[in-house]
Design goal:
There is one protein chain. The protein is an all-alpha fold and 164 residues long. It has 2 domains: 100 residues, Rna Polymerase Sigma Factor, Chain: A, CATH 1.10.1740.10; 63 residues, Arc Repressor Mutant, subunit A (Orthogonal Bundle). It is built from 7 helices and no strands. Helix 2 crosses helix 3 and helix 5 crosses helix 7. This is RNA polymerase sigma-70 factor, ECF subfamily. It comes from Flavobacterium noncentrifugens. It holds the Pfam family Sigma70_r4_2.
Amino acid sequence: MDPELEQLFVKQLKENQNIIHKICRLYTSGEDAHKDLFQEITIQLWKAFPKFRGDSKFSTWAYRVALNTAITLYRKSTRSVQTSSFDTTNHFIKQEEYNYEEEEQIKLMYDAVYQLNDIEKALVFMYLEDKDYQEISETLGISEVNARVKMNRIKTKLKKILNP
């Protein structure tokens, strides 16, 4: 890959790695699985980056790739994540430490979100990231109206889970 393109990728990944951590948090339980999924998403982003045309923001594109990777791996196995080999000697992307000591309210919310299906999890995640419905619909490949309807149904579902 072109060195300029590689530098751009590293810069964009550093600026947007919290997105990936949050997706990993939604689809894994435990630090090892989180790290494995983070690595696999990074690999998939790296492989797909030469095809990134810039039609959308990097963060929107990264959401799509990360969610698709997480959902695909989650469906294959809820216990372990299979990863591809990655030559770390050529690509030094420092992974920020992720704080696993969450407040009790956040833990309860994550427990509730774990009970949702894959698409519902992705929609909640993006909604909590203050993404507008246009960006949510583009990322998930659904209409804006469908995203709004699904989000209202998810809110009702989460209320029932959190307040039985």
